[in-house]
Amino acid sequence: xxxxxxxxxxxxxxxxxxxxxxxxxxxxxxxxxxxxxxxxxxxxxxxxxxxxxxxxxxxxxxxxxxxxxxxxxxxxxxxxxxxxxxxxxxxxxxxxxxxxxxxxxxxxxxxxxxxxxxxxxxxxxxxxxxxxxxxxxxxxxxxxxxxxxxxxxxxxxxxxxxxxxxxxxxxxxxxxxxxxxxxxxxxxxxxxxxxxxxxxxxxxxxxxxxxxxxxxxxxxxxxxxxxxxxxxxxxxxxxxxxxxxxxxxxxxxxxxxxxxxxxxxxxxxxxxxxxxxxxxxxxxxxxxxxxxxxxxxxxxxxxxxxxxxxxxxxxxxxxxxxxxxxxxxxxxxxxxxxxxxxxxxxxxxxxxxxxxxxxxxxxxxxxxxxxxxxxxxxxxxxxxxxxxxxxxxxxxxxxxxxxxxxxxxxxxxxxxxxxxxxxxxxxxxxxxxxxxxxxxxxxxxxxxxxx
Length: 451
Ligand code: TAP
Known about the structure:
By secondary structure, the chain is an alpha/beta fold. It has helices spanning 23-40, 45-61, 63-74, 78-96, 133-146, 161-172, 187-196, 209-220, 244-256, 276-288, 308-318, 350-353, 369-377, 392-401, 434-439; strands spanning 2-7, 14-20, 106-107, 112-120, 123-127, 150-154, 180-182, 200-206, 225-229, 235-238, 268-272, 322-326, 340-343, 360-366, 385-388, 408-409, 428-429, 442-450. The strands form four sheets. Strands 12-13-14-11-10-15-16 form a seven-stranded mixed β-sheet, sandwiched between helices. Strands 7-6-5-8-9-17 form a six-stranded mixed β-sheet, sandwiched between helices. Residues 4-447 form the Aldehyde dehydrogenase domain.
């Protein structure tokens, strides 16, 4: 079997090798998952809930180990990596409440009894990107397993280590063999097989919009269910009446967190023209103070980019652009890039329109509320966004006007495991997290019993 080197992006050194599975191994994993489905779907709701709670507890016992692995493999800061491992535990705990609450309905009919059931789909294939290897895996497998499905999961080739460890911890917690299988390998081989294998009934994909489109097209052939979480180019809209000090202090983390490799990154900064100069003067020290460091240090706010190739892509956006100011990044080994603020001259600038997926934010002034909404919506993306204002009416009007799945007012938060998360327009299809995700791993069956 082929293998892939796994690199530490903070140093460029090889951490180890991981098998790169082929078609035969993928088919075998899917067929094992299909066999396991027959018994997993029959596990009593209380027992399935107990197993998921035990899985959550085992993950909870390994937070430091998982976080350390993510720091080395993905370059995430240790603070973020601890949150990410804790998020997997919390998502498992949340969905452990589901097997005993997945109720259908009783619908009044003449001549009998009519009831509905939320049936599991079968084998679910989950394809995970490199930017958030643990949470994105958990957002798929926790609700899928809770609803009675079995799961095959392909981590990104660049960042497979924590997913492999989560697969081991599932077995340690007592999940039966075949219920949750992690199978590393190439997207074009393992991921593509999830799309074409008839036993896989649903594909959850997070990653780039072009690959997401090809997966959706491939799934159409067998009418497979899909959930897609794709790219973003989210707007951070600062109105003149906002608490400008607070908005400027929060803006760097809203885009530079995870080195900007975040589909929710607020990478388009829209500032009302009357406070534009003042806001930039408040933003500059906040950007320059953003700590880009060895990600294993507790003080680090940002680590390196994921790979040399990705750093080149990010740099291609800043080359010809006007840099307002930038922070500092370590020199030498590793794929470092400084937090960078670019001035957009028009909404046609490539760095304003395209997903850079790095620590780069583009700034553009706007005139009034209508102008802000128009500029925010001038994109095919629609994942996240923020609005800074003290006017509640404006906050609600703009929230309803901006075409995006997740908005925060006077904050940059996008993700809570109990509220829905997902994109409008070409940022995705379907919702993860909260009750919405659970139902997307089921089909409704209606049964009529004549009396
Ligand atoms: P993708 O190429 O879309 O990869 C995401 C996942 O899909 C990886 O596991 C990848 O496998 C797999 N994959 C690739 N081609 C596939 C195919 N034909 N069939 C099935 N699975 C396939 O994204 P990337 O290279 O990781 O990142 C490129 C860009 O995607 C980024 O710059 C960013 O714009 C966007 N992105 C968005 C997000 C979110 S959260 N929305 C996350 C990551 C990336 P491999 O292991 O072979 O790569």
